[in-house]
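Weekly structure sync, notes
Attendees: PL (lead), two postdocs, one rotation student
Agenda item 3: pending single-chain targets
PL asked that the sequence for the first pending target be pasted directly into the notes so everyone works from the same version. It is reproduced below exactly as submitted, 110 residues in total.
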Amino acid sequence: MKEAVFTLKLEAELRDAFMAEAEASHRPASQIVRDFMREFIKTQQDQRDYDVWLDAELEKAVREADDPNTKWYTQEELQQGRWREQRESLLARIAAQEAAEDPAAAKSAK
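Predicted structure, written out during the meeting:
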């Protein structure tokens, strides 16, 4: 494995405090910084993945809201419990759509 040197400028107080804490934890400062870097990379990648997923979900929601066949319910209808039947119907439609998109997943879900 090749080694690379990473040089950065920081306040002396920050460096001293960091080095003291690294020593107190009995870990090399360079290992702690590598761990910080790995965690930062993972966090950034996870956030980008989430953003891509959320954008796709929002696009689907907007398409559904714009669809003239979308059924809308009043607050009164929801309070009267009519949503339960519609929820079951919607879940069945979703399952059928997922099965059509990925037949292997549908078989393993049974």
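Discussion points:
- Residues 29-66 form the longest helix (38 residues).
- Helices lie at 12-24, 29-66, 75-79, 83-101, 103-109.
Action: rotation student to compare against the earlier draft before next sync.
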